[in-house]
Structures are given as C-alpha cells and as structure tokens.
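mind reviewing this stuff:

——
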Amino acid sequence: MHKPERDADLLCVCEALRREAGGYIAITRLAGLAIRRSAGSFYLSERKYTDIITRRALTPKSPLKREMHADILALADRLRSAHPQAGTRAIVRMAAAQGAPRFYLSGRRAADILYASLKTKR
C-alpha cells in the first residue's frame, strides 16, 4: 500500500546522507542515520489514521509503533488546537498531509530495504 512510497523516500534520504558523508558509508550505519531523519509521511491509510486519532486502534506491542501512535496523537492534538472547528475527518486529512518526525522502521528493516534496492539495481 504505502510501502513503495516509504521505501522510495527512505532511499532518497539515504542518498542524501551518502552525499553528505562524501563517500562510502556502511549500509548499517546509513540505515541507522536515515531512520532518524524526518519522513514525508507516516505512510498509513486514512482508516488507520482515523483509528489512531479516535483511539479505536489497539495499543501496539512494538515500541516503534507505540512511538508512531503517540506522535500521531500529539499531531492531532496540535491540529485540533489550531483548528478548533475541524471535525475528525478534517483532522485526519490534515494529519495525513503532514510529514513524520522519523521513519518508523528498525535499523535492520531499513538496512534490508537498502540491500534489496542494491540487488534490483544490478
């Protein structure tokens, strides 16, 4: 669903980091740096945003997903304060249009995405 977009954004961030480093950087280090950079989106469906914002979503077991849910709820609270007349659907759409403070991936998963992209380039 949103994985191709997320992966493409991650690869762009990695390429920018590689240029900043001025040369070679190990993929595991690159992945670790990249996941802490801001992301273009939370890469979720509107339905998932709605479930999180209306607190219908179950509390995730994964620490990264819990962090993502907390960040989305904080964003929704800021949007509600800035737009007190907006309903839930409008808040969800505004939240979906915002960037995310980071990529909610483990370093290992990000490295796997980088390795896979290298394989397909060959």
